[in-house]
Specification:
Order of helices and strands: EHEHHHHHHEEHEEHEHEHH
Largest sheet: 8 strands, mixed
Distance between the termini: 36 Å
Strand content: 5-15%
């Protein structure tokens, strides 16, 4: 099977969000299915980083279908491992078809425990089942040798709080686990004598590697964390969850604002920087369709739930392609002027 395609080239920016990363899996599956598109580079954080390395490894093994198969295999392995987790839905939630873990005794116990003890207290050996799955599912030699798709993984340097981007040649299991390391749950990941936490604190996902890339002027952001909440949270849990959502979107919003200001300056001064000055931004996201996803459900990896998220993500991508395919390579479909005036514009169809 030929790996290369002559379709429109795009770069992807993939957000993190625990098991909600299955939304991104659905988006990727639909994009890979469309041979009018060629994925050139991927910047990913946390679950986005995992999707990125699984895709690149699968693509190196067997092209588009290899990537689609690898993504399904990875998420199925995650789900299979979760069957033995003490964190399961309550009987009431199972009876009502609710995938939230807000009433899960195991989830509530672990959440309370994490507020009293650190992972250094609770897990002194640093055992991480997710690492075992990642190492079993992904050949990182393929990821780093893949010339068709370049991968960038973002983690947060604990001492400085700055983003550390691991790119071709340095994308390892350690880098991906660092990118997904929530410090309340997992011990910091040490790489070359330095400790790293979840990349969501500093770049979720990082856009600069794609802005400076000459592989494609088009950056398609797959955002799975809600920017807008239509109601102000009232309960303690809702407040904490909203604070976390804001925190994990802040770095992306700052990078978008920087790109917006740069574009305004270029336009205002009438500068013609040629292809190097072109950045076309696109957003695959639906605020309205993530309002029902509770923060606790990010820890739910039941196959039925992941499959629902997968189908929802495919639907996002399908709708986005139908509206915006012709714009790829010619203009942005994310209107930053409108977006910064009213971020809720991301919940409405793109121009």
């Amino acid at each position: 099977m030929a790996k290369k395609s002559h379709g429109k080239r795009i770069n992807l920016a993939l957000q993190g969000g625990g098991s909600h990363g299955a939304l991104t899996w659905g988006v990727l599956d639909r994009l890979l299915e469309d041979d009018r598109l060629t994925i050139a580079e991927i910047s990913g954080t946390s679950a986005g980083a995992m999707n990125a390395v699984v895709l690149a490894d699968g693509f190196e093994r067997g092209g588009r279908e290899g990537a689609r198969s690898a993504l399904r295999g990875f998420w199925k392995a995650v789900s299979d491992a979760a069957r033995f987790s003490p964190i399961q839905r309550s009987p009431w939630d199972r009876a009502t078809g609710n995938y939230s873990l807000d009433l899960s005794p195991g989830y509530l116990f672990m959440e309370g425990l994490s507020r009293l003890f650190s992972p250094y207290d609770l897990n002194p050996m640093g055992v991480d089942p997710l690492r075992m799955i990642l190492e079993q599912q992904v050949d990182f030699t393929n990821v780093n040798q893949c010339r068709d798709i370049a991968v960038h993984v973002t983690a947060t340097h604990v001492r400085t709080g700055r983003a550390k981007i691991f790119s071709r040649g340095a994308v390892t299991a350690d880098a991906v686990m660092a990118s997904a390391c929530l410090p309340q749950i997992s011990r910091a990941v040490e790489i070359d004598g330095e400790d790293y936490w979840d990349g969501g604190y500093s770049g979720n996902p990082a856009l600069m590697p794609l802005v400076t890339s000459d592989a494609s002027p088009d950056i398609v952001i797959v955002q799975i964390n809600p920017v807008v909440r239509h109601e102000t949270p009232r309960s303690a849990r809702e407040i904490i969850n909203r604070v976390n959502e804001i925190s994990f979107n802040t770095s992306l919003i700052k990078e978008l604002r920087a790109i917006h200001l740069m574009q305004q300056m270029i336009d205002g001064k009438g500068l013609d920087l040629g292809p190097a000055g072109q950045t076309y931004l696109h957003l695959i996201h639906a605020d309205a369709e993530v309002q029902d996803l509770s923060a606790s459900s990010k820890s739910n990896a039941e196959w039925g739930y992941l499959s629902q998220l997968f189908e929802r993500g495919r639907g996002w991508a399908d709708a986005w392609l139908a509206r915006n395919f012709d714009a790829i390579g010619t203009r942005s479909t994310l209107d930053l002027d409108a977006w910064f005036v009213d971020p809720g514009v991301s919940a409405r169809p793109e121009a």
